[in-house]
Amino acid sequence: MSAKRAFSIVAVTSVLLLSAQGGPIGSWFTITDRSNDQLNASIAYNSQRQEYLVVWWNDQPENDDVWGQRVSRNGTLSGPPFLIAYGSGAERRFPAVAYNSQHDEYLVVWQEEDASYSSVRGRRVSATGWLPGGVLTVASGAISDVYCGQPAVAYASTADRYLVIYDYGNTSGWLQSGIAARAFTSDGSPDGNAFDARPYGGGSPTLGLSLAYNRARNEFLVVWSESADLSYDVWGRRVKMAGGAGTLGDIFRVSVNMDSTDDLYPAIAAIPFPAGVGQYLVAWESHYTVSDGDIYAQPVAGDGTVTVGPAITIANPTTNQTHPAVDGSDSSQQYLVTWSHPSDPPFIFVGIRGRAVSTGGALLGKETGLGGIFAGHSAVAAGPPGDFLVAYDDVPYTSDRNIYGRLWGNRIYLPLVQRNH
To answer: Are 183 and 192 spatial neighbours (Cβ–Cβ below 8 Å)?
Structure first.
């Protein structure tokens, strides 16, 4: 053996692996902590810049504003929060946002009321947070006669069009309502007239309007809940984009196996697989009693065929689960469903939980807490490969509700030992 002693240097690094179902990444973080209550976050992912835009409304007396905040893929804030819709004398609430991948900008829509009008408005937002163009009007009417609300928006990348949906109805006499849809070009111009996804008429109020775009077929699926008999059910209607926006096929029941419960506030996501067909996952809260809500989900094929068999049970303990949200990741081909989950009595805490679901409808891993002390109204958006951002409103420190976030992903870091002689 040589007189010189042999030695080695050991370097410890890490290797990134992919898990099957993912889980929370890091800790929860503050998206905004302004004064007054900040409520009802909505998220869109910018695939070109690999960042998210989170929007919400600021609850102030007779002056509710809509705000936005860019969030990087790793959860850091990109620039300051910025105003999207503002001004005295009007209440602007329940914003929703969609990302335009062809023009690298967003469309934000919201419900607006002043002393004279009930409206759904919108505003284009650039990728860096400035506001091109002016405020656009999706629908409006005299507040003494009609209402317009619950807007939602999605972007059709194949057609380069937005679709905005909203409910509307009369405010006096025999109350009637409908769900309207209207297409807009990328510059915010209307593309044709509004049309009914759910015809105007009698019946119960519609709750939880939501839609998702299936680029495998260049179509949307619009979902909502209403009572057609003795209980609320989840219903759906396809909307085509080829040859101009319009309805496709009949209205159909999504919550086909839940007839004895009230199925409320659906959320929907789409994944464009299998090729040429695509699929959706619709999640909702199902109530056996007023204080016992569970979270269920139902796969729906891209052609509107509801999967035969029982709905997927996402969460069904004895506490009251509410406000589901869902989005789908094309890269990992799985969905993430989130919801509000109260603690067992006698505690009064409310957290946000999540559960991954495969495109085949299988539950992946276990339901997992994401954060929250008195949390509510989660939103979720798929981001970089395998990642999601979850946002929710909460009051962990002060009496004002603010917006917080948590990343979810399928990253696992394992140690790797390198030995250099």
So the answer is: yes
CATH number attached to the domain at 9-420: 2.120.10.10
d(CA 355, CA 363): 7
Torsion sign across C-alpha atoms 122, 127, 129, 134: negative
d(CA 278, CA 274): 5
Mean pLDDT of 304-328: 92
Q: Judge if pTM exceeds 0.70.
A: yes
CA 405 – CA 265 distance, rounded (Å): 22
Q: Return the residue matching tokens 């990348």.
A: 157
CA proximity to 257, closest of 221, 223, 296, 230: 296
Number of residues that this document lists for the chain: 421
Is the backbone of residue 386 left (phi > 0), alpha (psi -120 to 50) or beta?
left
R_g of the chain computed on alpha carbons: 22
CB 137 within 8 A of CB 188: no
As to burial, measured by CB atoms within 10 angstroms (0-12 exposed, 13-18 middle, 19+ buried), residue 227 is: middle
Angle at 56 between CA 50 and CA 58, to 5 degrees: 145
Q: Give Cα 265 distance to the centre of its chain.
A: 12
- Residue pLDDT, tens place only, 355-369: 999 999 999 999 999
Tell me the C-alpha distance between 51 and 71, whole Å.
Answer: 6
Q: 162-194 pLDDT, tens per residue?
A: 999 999 999 887 889 999 999 999 999 999 999
Dihedral through CA 210, CA 215, CA 216, CA 220, nearest 10? 30
Query: Which pairs count as long-range contacts for 295-301, CB under 8 Å and 24+ apart, including other chains?
Result: 295/321, 295/324, 295/337, 295/339, 296/255, 296/258, 296/263, 297/324, 297/326, 297/335, 297/337, 297/357, 297/361, 298/234, 298/254, 298/255, 298/256, 299/361, 300/221, 300/236, 300/254, 301/277
What is the rounded distance in angstroms from the CA atom of residue 410 to the CA atom of residue 241? 34
CB 364 within 8 A of CB 346: no
Sheet strands (E) in 309-383: 312-315, 322-329, 334-342, 350-358, 363-371, 376-382
Exposed e or buried b per residue across 204-215, where buried means at least 16 C-beta atoms within 10 angstroms of its C-beta = eebbbbbbbbbb
